[in-house]
Amino acid sequence: MKKIAIFPGSFDPFTKGHEDIVIRGLKLFDEIIVAIGHNSKKSNRYFDVERMAELIDQTFEKYDNISVILYSELTAELAKKHQAKYLLRGLRNTTDFEYENSISQVNKHLNEDLESVFLITSPELAAINSTIIREVHRYGGDVSDFLPYKI
């Protein structure tokens, strides 16, 4: 049976840290779906969602087992639709763990077949944070070292 994982997030923007988690996830999964979701806590995106999907797709153009989709529904339901039994998530620190642990418990309740798999961020990428990147970009700073594509 094919091991399919969903890598969900708002990806505003998608960083080298995210890219690292996806590439490393390929050692565990046959297919990874990068799913850009609507986060109800974030009313307005900084980077256009369709453009971000294109940039992520270009980042992984050499991989036929990585796809990019947009979604606006419960992640647990999205996983069912794509026959994904796994959610792939990255952890930078203990704060991330506390947040992700709560989400994984709810996802498991909503979809008992769904397992969350956490990868620890590579040390050299652990400081990369989408919120900080948005602020640097907003004020004209160079963010190219943090992103796997040109914006």
From TrEMBL:
Cited NCBIfam families: coaD_prev_kdtB, cyt_tran_rel
Record EC number: 2.7.7.3
Start and end residues of each Cytidyltransferase-like domain: 6-135
Name of encoding gene: coaD
Lineage: Bacteria, Pseudomonadati, Bacteroidota, Cytophagia, Cytophagales
Keywords linked to the UniProt accession: ATP-binding, Coenzyme A biosynthesis, Cytoplasm, Magnesium, Nucleotide-binding, Nucleotidyltransferase, Transferase
Pathway(s) of this molecule: Cofactor biosynthesis; coenzyme A biosynthesis; CoA from (R)-pantothenate: step 4/5
Domain of life of the organism encoding this protein: Bacteria
Catalytic activity: (R)-4'-phosphopantetheine + ATP + H(+) = 3'-dephospho-CoA + diphosphate
Cofactor(s) the record lists: Mg(2+)
Function: Reversibly transfers an adenylyl group from ATP to 4'-phosphopantetheine, yielding dephospho-CoA (dPCoA) and pyrophosphate.
Pfam families reported for this sequence: CTP_transf_like
Keyword Transferase in record: yes
Amino acids binding substrate: S10, K42, T75, R89
Positions with a binding annotation for ATP: S10, F11, H18, G90, L91, R92, E100, L125, A126, A127, I128, N129, S130, T131
Enzyme class label: transferase
Location in the cell: Cytoplasm
Entries under Gene3D superfamilies matching the protein: HUPs
GO cellular component, one term: cytoplasm
GO MF terms, alphabetically ordered: ATP binding; pantetheine-phosphate adenylyltransferase activity
Record GO biological process: coenzyme A biosynthetic process
Quaternary data: Homohexamer.
HAMAP family: PPAT_bact (MF_00151)
Protein's name in the database: Phosphopantetheine adenylyltransferase
Residues annotated as transmembrane: none
UniProt similarity note: Belongs to the bacterial CoaD family.
Annotated source species: Fulvivirga imtechensis AK7
